C-alpha cells in the first residue's frame, strides 16, 4: 500500500500501550492533541487528515475513569466529524464492567449506559479484552471483538519450571469458567475459594473446594483493584498447605490498599498485562504486553479477516 488507510489515535489513559501497538504493526501513532482546559473540560484536536480512514482510538477507561471515558467519547465525536470511514473504540480495559446488572434496588446498569454512550458518540465497532462478564458484549448493537489475555499468560507460564502439582484456583464462584479453561489447557487440577464480600474493598475467604496441600497454586481473575479477593484467597490457600501462590490477573489497577496487602507476601508473583498502566512498587509483579495481540487484531479487522486465530495458544 502506498498510503495506509489505517489510523491509530490514543487518549491519555495508556499512551505507552498505543505506541507499542503501533510498533508491533509498523504504523505511526496518529497525531492528536488531547488535553484539558483549566476548568477540567477535555479538549481534543486531531492534527492530521483522517477523512475516509479506518480509525482506531486506543483508550482504557482506567482511573481516573470518568475523565478517560469522557476523553474517549470526545475523540470518537471528533473522528466522526472529521469524516472517518469507520471508528473502532479500542478499550483494553472496559471500566464500569462490574456494574452489569441490578443486584440491589434502585441501582443503574452502568455497563449498559457506557455502551450506549460509545455508540451515541459514533463508535461503529468495539475491540476489547477480558470483559468482567462476557454478556456485556450483548449491551452493544455494533460488532464487538472480545479478546483474551490467556494466550499471553500461557506463553509465559509454559516457560516456568514446574516442580510440584499445579492447581488452578478461582478466587470466587464467578471465575470458575475461566479457571476451568486454564486448568484444562495447563493439565492442572481445579479448585475454588468461596468468599463473602464485606464491602467494596474487603472480602472474607470462607472455604476451599479442592486439594492444595503440597501444591503450587495459580489464582486466575479478570481484574484486581484492592487485591482483597486475591490476598484473602492466598491466605486460606496457604493455611491449607499450598507451597506457592501466584496470581494471573488480566487488569491490574492497584490502589494504595492493594499495595499494602501485596507487601504482606501472601502472593509470590502477580502476572498481569499492560492493558492499564501498572506501577510495580517494588513488588513481584510481572507485566506482560498485549500490544502484539491488539495490533494483530487491528490489522485483521482492517483487512476483513477473522480474529479467531488470535485465541490459539502457544506452548501447551
Q: Topology, please?
A:
Blueprint: E1 6-10, H1 15-25, E2 32-36, E3 42-46, E4 54-58, H2 65-81, E5 86-91, H3 110-121, E6 125-129, E7 144-147, H4 150-157, E8 166-170, H5 176-186, E9 189-199, E10 202-209, E11 216-224, H6 228-239, E12 244-252, H7 256-262, E13 269-273, E14 285-288, H8 291-302
Parallel strand pairs: 1-4, 4-5, 5-6, 6-7, 8-9, 8-11, 11-12, 12-13, 13-14
Antiparallel strand pairs: 2-3, 9-10
What would you note in describing this structure?
By secondary structure, the chain is α/β, with parallel strands linked by helices. The protein has two domains: 6-148 and 291-311, Rossmann fold (3-Layer(aba) Sandwich), CATH 3.40.50.2020; 150-288, Rossmann fold (3-Layer(aba) Sandwich). It is built from eight helices and 14 strands. It has helices at 15-25, 65-81, 110-121, 150-157, 176-186, 228-239, 256-262, 291-302; strands at residues 6-10, 32-36, 42-46, 54-58, 86-91, 125-129, 144-147, 166-170, 189-199, 202-209, 216-224, 244-252, 269-273, 285-288. Strands 10-9-8-11-12-13-14 form a seven-stranded mixed beta sheet, with helices on both faces. A five-stranded parallel beta sheet has the order 1-4-5-6-7, sandwiched between helices. Strands 2-3 form a two-stranded antiparallel sheet. α6 links the parallel β11 and β12. The protein is globular and about 60 Å long. The model has no long low-confidence stretch (mean pLDDT 92).
Amino acid at each position: 500500500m502506498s498510503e495506509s488507510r489505517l489510523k491509530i489515535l490514543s487518549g491519555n489513559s495508556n499512551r505507552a500501550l498505543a505506541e507499542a501497538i503501533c510498533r508491533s504493526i509498523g504504523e505511526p501513532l496518529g497525531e492528536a492533541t488531547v488535553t484539558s482546559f483549566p476548568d477540567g473540560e477535555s479538549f481534543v484536536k486531531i492534527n492530521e487528515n483522517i477523512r475516509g480512514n479506518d480509525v482506531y482510538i486506543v483508550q482504557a477507561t482506567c482511573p481516573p475513569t470518568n475523565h478517560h471515558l469522557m476523553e474517549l467519547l470526545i475523540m470518537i465525536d471528533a473522528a466522526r466529524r472529521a469524516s472517518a470511514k469507520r471508528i473502532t473504540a479500542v478499550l483494553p480495559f472496559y471500566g464500569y464492567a462490574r456494574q452489569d446488572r441490578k443486584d440491589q434496588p434502585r441501582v443503574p446498569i452502568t455497563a449498559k449506559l457506557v455502551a450506549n454512550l460509545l455508540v451515541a458518540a459514533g463508535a461503529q465497532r468495539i475491540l476489547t479484552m477480558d470483559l468482567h462478564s462476557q454478556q456485556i458484549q450483548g449491551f452493544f448493537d455494533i460488532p464487538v471483538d472480545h479478546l483474551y489475555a490467556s494466550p499471553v499468560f500461557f506463553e509465559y507460564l509454559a516457560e516456568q519450571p514446574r516442580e510440584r502439582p499445579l492447581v488452578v484456583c478461582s478466587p470466587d464462584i464467578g471465575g470458575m469458567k475461566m479457571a476451568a479453561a486454564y486448568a484444562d489447557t495447563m493439565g492442572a487440577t481445579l479448585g475454588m475459594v468461596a468468599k463473602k464480600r464485606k464491602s467494596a474493598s474487603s472480602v472474607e475467604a470462607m472455604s476451599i473446594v479442592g486439594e492444595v496441600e503440597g501444591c503450587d497454586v495459580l489464582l486466575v481473575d479478570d481484574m484486581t483493584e484492592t487485591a482483597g479477593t486475591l490476598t484473602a484467597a492466598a491466605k486460606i490457600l496457604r493455611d491449607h498447605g499450598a507451597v506457592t501462590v501466584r496470581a494471573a490477573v488480566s487488569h491490574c489497577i492497584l490502589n494504595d490498599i492493594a499495595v499494602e496487602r501485596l507487601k504482606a507476601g501472601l502472593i509470590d508473583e502477580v502476572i498481569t498485562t499492560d492493558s492499564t498502566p501498572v506501577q510495580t512498587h517494588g513488588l513481584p509483579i510481572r507485566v506482560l504486553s498485549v500490544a502484539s495481540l491488539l495490533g494483530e487484531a487491528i490489522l485483521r479487522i482492517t483487512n476483513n479477516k477473522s480474529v479467531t486465530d488470535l485465541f490459539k495458544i502457544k506452548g501447551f
